[in-house]
Amino acid sequence: MIKSPLKSKVDSRDGKLAMAHLYVAFIALLVGGLAGLLQVLVRSGKFQLPAGIGYYQILTVHGVVLGLVLTTFFIMGFQLSVVSKTAGTFTGKQRTVGWIGFWIMTIGTIAAAVMILLNKASVLYTFYAPLQAHFIFYLGLTLVVVGSWTVGAAIIMKYAEWRRANPGQQSPLLTFMALVNTLMWIVATIGVAATVLIQLLPWSLGWVDTVNVAVSRTLFWYFGHPLVYFWLLPAYMVWYAIIPKIIGGKIFSDSLARMSFILFLLFSIPVGFHHQLLEPGIDAAWKFLQVVLTFAVVIPSLMTAFSLFASFETFGRSKGAKGLFGWLKKLPWGDARFTVPFIGMVAFIPAGAGGIVNASHQMNQVIHNTIWVTGHFHLTVATAVVLTFFGAAFWLVPHLTGRKLTKKMNKLALIQGSLWAIGMTFMSGAMHAAGLLGAPRRSAFSDYGGSAQAAEWIPYQIAQAVGGSILFIAIILMLYIFINLAFFAPKGEQEFPVGEALHPEEKAPMVFENWKLWLGITVLLILFAYTIPFIDLIQNAPPGSKGFKLW
Amino acid sequence: MAKAELKSNTKTEIEDSSSLKGTLASVFFIGFFIIVLWVGVYFLYLDRF
Ligand SMILES: [Cu+2]
After folding, report:
1. A317 is catalytic
2. Which cell locations does it reside in (chain A) (predicted)?
3. Which CATH number is A449's domain given?
4. Separation in Å, CA of B3 to nearest CA in chain A
5. d(Cα A370, Cα A374) in Å, to the nearest integer?
6. How many domains does chain A have?
7. Is residue A225 annotated as part of the catalytic site, yes or no?
């Protein structure tokens, strides 16, 4: 039997595996952050890249290294930690599977990164065909995905073992959540694996001459939207299950948290068309259906908001808070483990609202391919998610390395979070505004032949450069804190906070652990939303496209 | 009389300590924010297309 894992520390062998993931994640933060800084400087029109480095090359570095590498490695390290903490130490075999996955992901990352740095793969992070990268880039991405499946297998094995050892009992909340995210990730990445293995690899190797562009983009977005939720759900784990413990309160409802995660599993995948609303070749009726399913995600999102506020308010009132918002004053604002993720939660309000605009068909025409979209996902992933990850790193890293978060580091962490909020307000705010004025995303600086409309965007581009520079300072500060917590902070025991439910006697229904049921509904929804559109895209396909290298 | 008063006082206090009215107000604020942004961009759309 598993002996009361809640009281124990994460086993140091599991800690090493998790830390290996975090090292890669924070190296990625440095590389990707530097690329981001160069981008905003170029787009201000006041700076040119030296030594023949291309704008689209650093754009690819920024997107791939932060969007795919930082996130995936951090999430895998974090999920391994919470599972080890709440379901018990991994067995030797499970841990070996985890290490194999880590090395496959790392080798894939290095392969893809080398091709980008050699300027053989400046295809941006969406790697849309018919832009054609060197085949090693696609091979590298495949390895990252296969490696993540392998790490996921370790989590699934641990969960299965826990269920066998504890028949008829609900699994620990954080393990349950990590499992949902792993299952969603596996179902979602089948899409990107399919386009890379069946379409892009053979085409980049010259085995076939042409590619069906619409099919490859559709497979990409089948993966691309749940990718967003793969980033977000670990942040939700922190918000639902860890923050309540940090503030000294309780999880508002264990069942509500589980149900919202199940809803995210169901509604994250059959919705990719909301990224393709302006693409030909997909019938408007199917776009409409997927937009409706997209809006279904509003329900678990508002459930999450309700649950978080409720957990804060219940805590504040237990401390004697009065009035409508008196409980806000009782929250531990001096604690970076709370405040930095809280900034992320606040950012998620405009981020979510903007997402609803993006997914509405007509309004998508206002913002499509404008820098509004870039502003949007810098609020979702690059603020809400990333600040929550940083907030988790403040206790996770010292917990795993046997050190302590000192008062001084806590203060630096608070400065780091505030700088991020200020920098992002400038950068993302200016991106949203310029996007509404028609400024395109992705493209390098241009005055578009002296066009009057393009001249309107310039002040916003300068504001983006200011915001981006502040963000880069925040990144350097974060790296300093990470290195301190990993190598130099004083030895000690840092708590791994795991929240308890407000009403622990209320057991969540066991139906939540019925994976045949939930995966069955997931697959049915996917088949319903995608089968006929795919048949259309393949049967009525225009001639395929040869590859282009436009950089 | 005094006893009844005491009773009602405790009752309001209990209600206050478990009240979620701030939560309700906050969630309504988010809903309101979503609607304002949506309607704003919708009118921008109507204006342009
Ligand atoms: Cu999406």
Report:
1. no
2. Membrane
3. 1.20.210.10
4. 24
5. 8
6. 1
7. yes
